[in-house]
Amino acid sequence: RDPSRPPDPSWLAEQQRVFGARFLLFIALVNLLYGVTTSWFLYFNTYYLARDLKLNPSQLSSVGGTINLCIIVRPLLGFLSDSVPICGSTRSAYFFIAATGSACCYLALAYLEPLTQLSVGPAVTLLCFANILGYAWCGVLLYAIVATEQRREPVNGAAQLNAIQWGFYSGGSLLGDLSEGVVLEAVGRPHHGYWLCFVCWVVMAFCG
Fold first, then answer.
1. Who wins on pLDDT, 1 or 173?
2. Residues 6+ apart with CB under 8 A from 1
3. pLDDT of residue 200
4. pTM higher than the cut 0.85
5. Which sign, positive or negative, has the C-alpha torsion 90, 96, 98, 99?
């Protein structure tokens, strides 16, 4: 090796050069929180529907299936965000709107439950919209944003960004799985956990 030759940049420095530090921070933080809230959403919902709304097992299965079925609208949401720009922006603007909308659903669930004792209908509607806006729409937009940025480095861009995205998402999911029981015990009531989901989605919205 030529001693006069400057050292090769580190892997992180090379990714920052190609994609930019802000974009890497966005992908890392948003996917980490996305993974955490995905685990919390499923866990809190089970206890919220069974304990707070007092659904029996058959109702619980039916309502849970309805909430999870909302994710099938993903292709339609992706088509909408790619076809109709907002102030010249497509994916970033829609990501902010979707994440903010999901945060508002969690805020309503956390705030209204102790005040009005939400009935099953409004509660399930809010959970459905939280799932559609947050996990369905934001998930599609994250994949699309990463796919667009991969063009900056046609050779290795896909592999590098996919590794970052799935690494932080998997880490967030694992963190959520490991912490969900402790978190629920700490907050006391299932709907209190929605406050944490609200905060996470607000952070994600402003990161976008």
1. 173
2. none
3. 92
4. no
5. positive
